[in-house]
Structure formats: C-alpha cells, structure tokens
Hints:
Chain A has helices spanning 2-30, 36-54, 61-90, 94-116, 141-163, 165-175, 177-182, 187-213, 219-234, 239-259, 262-279; strands spanning 131-134, 137-140. Chain A has 293 residues and is mainly alpha-helical. Chain A has a single domain, classed as Orthogonal Bundle (ABC transporter involved in vitamin B12 uptake, BtuC). In chain A, strand 1 (131-134) and strand 2 (137-140) form a beta hairpin. Chain B has a single domain, classed as ABC transporter involved in vitamin B12 uptake, BtuC (Orthogonal Bundle). Chain B has 13 helices and two strands; from the N terminus they run αααααααααααββαα. Chain B starts with a helix and ends with a helix. Chains A and B meet through helix 3, helix 4, helix 9 and helix 11 of A and helix 3, helix 4, helix 8, helix 10 and helix 12 of B.
Amino acid sequence: MALQLTINGISIGAIYALIAVGFAVVFNIMRFSNFAHGGMISACAFISFFFQRAFDPPPPFFVTVLFSAVCGMGIALLIDTLGYRRIRLKNSPKIYYFLMSLTFAILIEQILTVFFGTDIYGFPSVFKSQTFEIGSMIFKTMNIVILAVSVVILVALVWMINKTKIGLAIRAVAINADTSRLMGINSSVIVTVIFIIAGVLAGVSGVFLGVQYGVFPSVGPSMMLKGFIASIIGGLGSLSGAIFAALALGLIEMFLTFFIGATEATVILFGIMLAFLFIRPQGIMGIIVEDKA
Amino acid sequence: MSAYQTGLIVQISITIMTVVAVFAMTGLAGMFSLGQAAYMAVGAYVTFVLSRFLDIPYPITGIISILISILLSWIIAVPTLKLRRDYFALITVGFSQMILALVLLFEDFTRGSIGFSKIPRMDNLLLVSLVGLALIIFWIRNLKYSRFGRMCIALKNDEIAARSFGIDVYHLKIKIYVLASAIASFAGILMALRNRVITPDSFGWAQSAEMQIFLFFGGTNSLTGAILSAGGLKLLPEFVRDVTLFGVSMQEYRTIIYAILIIIVINFRPQGILGEKEINFKWLKNLYRRFKQSILKKNESYD
C-alpha cells in the first residue's frame, strides 16, 4: 500500500514539477510570476481532449502529448506577442506583466467556460490495460507513463540549460538581460525560447492533468497553485529546487489525502508553505533572488 | 425605485468599495494582491455563520469578522512582506484557495458548495452601502494626500530610495494591506446581505483579479479613475443583457470583454484611461474665481 501511494504521489509530483518548472523558467528570465501558465494548461487539456476524441481509432497517446505540446507552444507565443511584447519594449514596471498574465489566465478560463461549461469531461481511456501487476502490487499504467515522460522532459531541460550554448545564453540573460545583450546575446530570441519551453511544459502537463483529474476550465489555475507552492518551497527561480519541492509536495499530498482528506490537504499544504516562508524564505536550495527595485 | 435598480446600485457600490481598497494597496503602495475576495469571504461567512450558531445579532458578528480579517491579513503579511514582491502575489493566491478550502471543510456550518442561505434581510441596505462607500472613498482620498499616502507613493516608485529616506517600508506595507483587507471584508458582509446567499464560488481568485482589472483600466494612480472604471465596467454588461452571441447572453461574456479591454489598454495606454489625472472640483473653484474677478473688473470699469 505504502509503495503504491509513493508511486502515485511521485507521479502527481512529476506533473507538479512540470508546472513548477514551466513557471520558474519564465520567472528566471522575465522576473515575474506567469499566472497565464494555468490558463495555457487548461487550454491544452481541452485541445488534447478533443484531439483524442476526433479520431477513430484514437491516435497513440504520445501523438496526443506531442500535439498538445505544439499547441501549448503556439498559445505561449501568442500570449507573448499580444501581451508581453509591448510591455517589454517599453520597459514598463513589472506590475504590468502581473496584470497581463492574470488577464490572459482569466480570458482563457472564461472562454472555455462560456463554450464548454464548467462540467468535468472524462478523458477517454488511452491504454488497453489500465493496470499491470508486479508481484502482488498493482500499478496504474498511466502513473508510470506520466512519471517516465516527465523525467525524460525534465532531464532534457536541465541538460539543455546546464550544458548547451543556448542554455548558457539563457543563464546569462537570467542574471542580467542588458549586460548579456552587450555580450552579443540576442535576448529577444532567448525570451522566445523561454516561452516555447514554458508552452511545451504547459502542453504536456495539460494532457496529464486532463487524464488524471478530467478536463474542466479551471483545471490549470487550480493545479497551477501547487506549482506556485512548489516553486516557493524550492526557492523562486531555482529549477532543481522546484523539481525536488514538487516531488515532495506530490508525495505529501498523496499521503495526506489518503489518511486525512483532500480538502484538509489543501489547507495543510498552505500551512507548510507559510511555515517555510517563516523559517527558510530562501527555499530549499538556498538561493534568494534579490528584489531589484 | 425597483428592487432591480436598488440591487444594482448596491452591487456597484460594493464593487467600487473593493476597487478603492485595492487602489490603496496597488495604486498607492504598489503591492499586487490576488486574495482580496478571500477577505470578502471571511467577512461574509464569519458574520452570518457566527450570528446563526451563536445567536448574536449580525452587526456585532460583523465587527468580529472584520477583526478576524485584520488578524488574518496580519498573519499573512508578517512573513511575506519581508521578501520580494512576487512572493506576496503568490501567497495571496494560495491564501484565497485556502479560505475556500476551509469553507468546504467546515461544511456543517457553512453548507459548503450548496451555499449558506437564509441571510436576514436588511431594510436600509441601500443607504448603508452608499454611506459606507462615501466614507471609504473620503478616507482613501484623504489617505492619498496625507503623509502616509505620500510615503506609500514613494515606496511604490522606488523601494530602496524610500528606505534610504527613513521610511519604514515593511510596517507601512503591513498597515496598508491590513487596511485594504478590512475594507474588503466589510464589502463582503454587504455582498452577503445583498445576495442573501453566499457560495464559495463567488469568492474565487477570478473575483480578486476582476478588482485589479478595474483598477488598471481606470489608471493605477488615479482614485477617481478607479471609481469610474469600476462603476462603468460593472454597469456595462447590464446594457447588453438582451444581446446574444453564439446563443449565449452577452452577460456571460462580460469577463472576456473586460479581459480584452484591459489587454488593449495595457498595450496602448499603460497608465490607464485617466492616467495621473484626478477628477475633482478644482476647476469649479477656478471658474468661480475667474467669474468673480470678471465681475470685479466690470465694476471697476463702471467706476
């Protein structure tokens, strides 16, 4: 039982990690909290749901994931062009980014609500066998797939940021956008790359959330909150911290939900986050990002 | 006046009240909170649940609920406001989710997602809300032009500079957040009295976001801009109630319309519709002075 709970918890935590990283990547470069991430996730959940249902026989699951990732990328770039570009060019205060990302989150959620209502659409089953057994233990196939895909994506992302040339450019822009432009880095290209990464992560996590919790307009914003909590516990802007915190969060939530209850778990998680801010505001990784006024 | 009109006026004055509270926080001090609807929920639920189960008249429990909101906002503010601004926005989102989870958790008292109904009728609600609104606007207006308000504006524009001028930034932020939360919980009580039923859905983070949208539409630096845009945008869907698009009443689209409007405003006029301007009665005074002068001149020419 405990092992099964652990596996389920880690697989939920892996989704949270995808969300938290997508959020942290944008935060690192642009220095604002991208609330629109939740809206992107919802939109991708709906897109993948209709994509999966549009074909008979349904397409393989990885095709849906890929399609959703591409759509997430498109939505992220669209939001960047419509919302953030002019703010960036004008060098307006950060608070406008906040408001803009918030507006897009609400816009997407409301469009989905008006056209599809607030009902929960169940995702059609994707695999022939829902569960498989190893010895006496029963595992859900979906949890394992989610875990595997998330690990692959996260490892690829961390490798890209730490080892490749474009990753170096991303890290440079994260430290200081103006100075890195002086060093010959095209920071507007880097911003585009960042939104592509965020969009892909939102697309993938949208499919997974849709499969696990069903598809409804506020699926993204409500789950995005867990991503927020993870990135705060991990230390705002720290990728590895966010991943560890998200996995821990998934585990804690799974155990709390099992032993106490789902509603209580939300309250307790918030309490943990607040306690963390009291005791160790710099997060697990201990990197504190100073507020540059 | 029909019940519909009265209800509409009360609703608009509640909206303006919340937006004015957000103006004090975001417009003056530059703090971006997304949890103001949660304080409305605290006000509404604590007032009427306590009044029902302890058998105390609701004006007394109303005061208790405002005190509880003040305490809660203080608890949230103390650890969060020491950190950079982004934490504050995130924590307030988390806080609003937590309050709604608590409402669902104490289902025995709050009746959960079904909604807490049978809230007593208040006869002179219109009067109370209008007087309350006027007092709050007057208060915040005075705040803006006071020493406190000027310190807030200094803090908003450059926190480090404000600190180097000897302004206690941390305590200033706590004060203004607590104040905004108290106003929000008062508005929550009025909203419960108007609707006579409270559900957790009506206090989601979308409501908090709506307040910010109204504020930015009118202009973050203009109190009258915030008031006018809150009133105007809230009234706007009422005119298009009968229009339908894709078989859905235009009223359903109101948030989408707000969102599109604000995207246009932020892109092309980021300071908001009114910008820095305040609508006041100075021009009337000037007109009067000029009028008096011209009469004096005429009299002189007669001499």
